[in-house]
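Annotated sample (chain length 124).
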Amino acid sequence: MINKNELQTGSIVSFQNNIYILKRNDFQFSDLFNHFNAIPTTQEWLQKFGFQKSDLLKMDSGIYYHPNFNKLSVTIKNGLANEIIIYISENNWKTLAFNIGYVHLFQNKWYQLTKIWLSINQIK
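Output written by the structure step:
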């Protein structure tokens, strides 16, 4: 179960074993939230959001970047997103450890940092 305060219109969750994108009118039905489940932020989800794997560092964990946001990257460890890296300049960066292990939380944090809501055009 997901805390309702973590969700907003456009949040991506699992509902009855299907991927579901929250709509504005979903918030009228409070009992509906008891049936939402969080989706782990995996490499597959980063790619759905348009992130690409960086070849700069040869790491098992991997670093993903978004072509439209060259100052932000996401690291993957054990198959799950675990932190966002902000590049301040060429040799200066800051690692921010956020709770981004679930898609809806990653969407929230990305929006806080960029004011751009992560969405996907088509869910397969």
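Annotation: The helical segments are 43-48, 103-114.
Annotation: The beta strands are 12-15, 18-21, 36-37, 52-53, 63-66, 69-77, 80-89, 92-96.
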